[in-house]
Amino acid sequence: MSDAARIDCLALAAEAWANGSGATRTLGRCNDADGETAWRVSIATLNGPSRFSQFPGIDRTFILIDQESVELQLQHGSLHARLGQPVHFSGDLHVWIDMPAGEAHALNVMTRRGRCRARVEVVSHDAIREPAQTHFLVSLGGAWLVRGAQPGDGGITLAPLHALRLDGHAGRLELSPADAGSNTLLASIAIETAETASA
User: Are 20 and 102 in a shared domain?
Assistant: First the structure.
């Protein structure tokens, strides 16, 4: 069983977006042999209408954390993003976000097409998950109790916008809301290589 690395998402250093339109905090990333991004998991800080950077060859997942809904405008249409619901789109596209002024956050997952894949889901109730070789759990709302991440522990509590990263973890994870509120949301992100995903 591997160790679980705890992450305070908003305590991470903020990096400017590639196009300068926003900022992001990277929870984890992996580059391939030629230096290109294989995968990246991050929290973006949004401040009103913004244009997303283009990432050719990248598949993206966007999850709104603290706004009820926003519109993602694409070259040939739009996507309606709701709180806690994953939205998928290609990094090849021109995408911009239409939202009121004011700070908001979103979870971003990027994988290089043909090399990696991310299985991203959001749970709001008790759940059991078998972790991938690299796996992230991110509390999007409310506190969550994670059992099975470390041997002999009584569980790890994740406060909102805190995360766990597990690499090479064996054994299932038991996920339970520690709060009784209606906005308890936890993102489960399984990063798989193309070989693992096709097995």
Answer: yes
Q: Decide which of 73, 93, 114 is a domain's last residue.
A: 114
Record the pTM.
0.91
Query: Can you give the pLDDT at residue 120?
Result: 97
CA distance 48 to 62: 16
Instruction: Name the amino acid, one letter, at 141.
Output: G
Among all chains, which residue has been given the structure tokens 């798989």? Answer: 192
- The count of domains in the chain is 2
Q: Determine the Cα–Cα distance for residues 185 and 140; give it in Å rounded to an integer.
A: 5
CA angle, 115 then 46 then 92, to 5°: 35
Per-residue pLDDT tens digits for 106-117 = 999 999 999 999
Please list the alpha-helical segments (H only) found in the chain. Answer: 194-198
Strand partners, 87: 62
Q: In what order do the strands lie in the sheet with 77-82?
A: 50-51, 95-98, 69-74, 77-82
Q: Is 131 helix (H, G, I), strand (E, B) or coil?
A: coil
Residue 143 near residue 177, CB atoms below 8 Å: yes
**Residue 42 to residue 53: CA distance in whole angstroms:** 14
Per the CB < 8 A criterion, the answer to whether 61 and 86 are in contact is yes
Helix (H) or strand (E) holding 50: strand 50-51
- Domain of 85 in residue numbering reads as 10-114
Q: How many residues does the chain have?
A: 199
